[in-house]
Amino acid sequence: MGLEASLPVDGVLTTNLNRVVNWARRSSIWPMPFATACCGIELMATACSRFDLARFGAEVMRFSPRQADLLIMAGRVSVKTLPVLQRVYAQMAEPKWVISMGACASTGGVFDTYAVVQGIDQYLPVDVYVPGCPPRPEMLIEGIMTIQRIIDEDNIPRDPSGLRRPLNIALSPNYQPRDQPLPVTIGVT
Ligand code: SF4
Fold first, then answer.
1. In a structure prediction context, what are the per-residue pLDDT tens digits for the chain, which is 189 residues long?
2. Alpha carbon nearest to ligand 1 atom 8, residue
């Protein structure tokens, strides 16, 4: 009766089912915290009452990778730790996501040494880079919300063979540093 032609390719039922699945996925992200340094403290603060990550349905930190779908790499990664991180990622459930939190995880930060990995994206598919040293909890929440928006839009990028590609989204700092409240004088009495 011509009705089929005006329906989306997948059909009404499948499309709506997809929406419900995506809504459930984005509302129940289970992060796997891999905190190795000071960024981890901000990660902990994000889950505490002041910032309350539970408002975004992402507060259920799992310490078993098989129960987690969002890896939050907070802090620097040493060359010795890298195989552990890769194994944790490999054991996580699909579809899975990766946030690189802070300068050290994304670039090695100030630790420009042979022992520190100069950016985990050389070894893992990073979806969102959260800037800062350390990033504030609001910034991390922004990173998690970015992934939630992508899940909502069913916008998981795949290569021609069907494998998922990393999102590669770098957030911009969303605040202006304030002036020092007092002039700083060093060595003057
Ligand atoms: S980015 Fe800064 S706060 Fe985060 S782990 Fe590195 S030195 Fe620490």
1. 555 565 555 556 666 888 888 899 999 999 999 999 999 999 999 999 999 999 999 999 999 999 999 999 999 999 999 999 999 999 998 889 999 999 999 999 999 999 999 999 999 999 999 999 999 999 999 999 999 998 888 767 777 887 778 888 899 876 676 676 767 677 755
2. 38
What's the number of domains the chain is made of? 1
Residue 137: asked if its preceding bond is cis (omega within 30°), the reply is: no
CA 114 to chain centre: 26
Distance from Cα 95 to the centre of ligand 1, integer Å? 28
| Residue 184 belongs to some domain of the structure | no
User: Which of 104, 117, 118, 136 best tests ligand 1's pocket when mutated (most atoms within 8 Å of CB)?
Assistant: 104
pTM of the predicted model as reported, rounded to 2 decimal places: 0.84
Burial class (CB in 10 A: 0-12, 13-18, 19+), 134: buried
Please give the residue range of the domain that contains residue 127.
30-170
In ligand 1, the atom with minimum distance to the C-alpha of 38 is 8
Does 162 fall in a domain?
Answer: yes
Question: Is residue 177 assigned to a domain?
Answer: no
